Amino acid sequence: MRQSNIELLRIVSMLMVLTVHADGAALGLPALAGKLDTATGYDLGRLAVESVAIIGVNCFTMISGYFGIRLKWRSAAKFLFQCLFYAVGIYGAVCVAFPSMFSFKGLLDSCMVLTHTDLWYVPAYFGLMLLSPVLNAGVDAMDRRQCSTVLAVFVLFNIWCGWWWQGAFNPTGYTLVQLIMVYLLGRYLRLHVSHDAVCRQRTLIGALYIMSTAGVFVSSMYLDPLKAFAYNSPLVLCSTVSLFMLFTTFDFQSRAINYAAKSAFAVYLIHKAPLIWGNVMRPAILRFEATLPTWEFILATAGIVVAFYLLAMLIDPLRRAISKAIL
Fold this sequence. Notes:
By secondary structure, the protein is mostly helical. It has 16 helices and no strands.
């Protein structure tokens, strides 16, 4: 049975991803570089929103680690079919509406979801799926002390060599290495951290989440936004783990949440498809910012975020039905 508390986190994580794309990716983030006297309330507000939402990708991946990926040919085929369904479907729908946009190269590119794509997470997550048997076996073979040591060294290696010194293997977290690290953190929480102990320390964990998120916000006022909001930033990782642990302490069941969570990944595949992102979502957000007062802009952008999630919930049952019939 699906755990509704984690499924709720899955939904929240995807809404965070949409928010980051609407805020930082669409508009670009203000680079204050410590010059706070030049910062406006709007600038600080956008940095605060980014500080809260930047952990969406990490949390989404950590869910996979918490439950563990059980690689089978069918699960890999379902993942690829889902990516193909939206990439080819969106391209086909746009070409039906605007026939002049069709080309055989464009159709072929839409089919090559692991290579000819702007969605970095798709090939990275597929790589994680392929490696999951090795990762699971490695974690299962170690006791808690061994696992703690290896994981701590791996995290420090990513932070020091990757985040701080911009190592090419993982400079900002948009890599397979980042997904492996977050996946292993999720496995560790599931296998070696007592649920009762987490529940007893809920207040402390909540305080840690607030402080680490505040730390991300403060760092964004002094560091380059790409560094402050990197997925492998120590503060971003701390915020990720603490929020995830908080959600594990919730205990409830909701069929509605479980159902809505099934379409979470579809939201990413739809809104970040190049034809949708470049011609619909990003231009709309830019236009809203240029023409609307601040509060109306915020409400309009929030409406876009919610609308894309609802759109995915309308379309994805068809994809699931076709996938079930084929696979």
